[in-house]
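Issue 218. Parser rejects a valid record. Input:
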Amino acid sequence: MTSMEHQEINLQQPQNQDLIWDMESMARRELAERFIRLFENRLCVYSESVRQLYTNYTLHFPTDLGRKMVVLPNAYAFHDTLHGIDAAAVRKTGLCVLPGVLVGKPGLLLSTEMKDDGSVPKTMPFKPALAQIISSQKKLGDVFLPIMMKGDLREFDQQMPYIHLHRLQVNKLTHLSTFERDDIHQTITRKMLMLYRQADSLVC
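Output the parser choked on:
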């Protein structure tokens, strides 16, 4: 059985609903698809219902499911799925990642405020903004581990897709061993650094 055949069969099976994201409300769905693909395997995806974090996955937009996106974990890399991730350790950040095309530039932007009144959000280039956040968290003795989950892909003024970031607080995973927490920390950090390094060249 090929990898593609395996994936097609998986799409027909009952799915974890946390991994099926509805894009019905997206006015510019194709742009949203291109944008979310920029984060494929660069941001880990969290599923609250099964308490798992997926670090190795592909994004699918199957026509038979309508205007939906399916996060499909790599079935051949089960060790890349992190277990025992309690919802109490996952927090909203209020931080949003937007495409640079919003201001006519390549790369990504970061904003701390997305208003519903249609006003253009204040943004910073992603790399210096992320570096500042990491530094400020480090001074507080904390780490910044961004992840995303269902509901985080949104649209500004029916024009521009953006992603709201959640964060994982590994210190709250007290039921896991120090080794397990360190492994989770390192895994998400590697993904974040990859996104950081490539942020200026990511274009949708």
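Fixed in the parser; the record now loads. The chain has one domain: 1-204.
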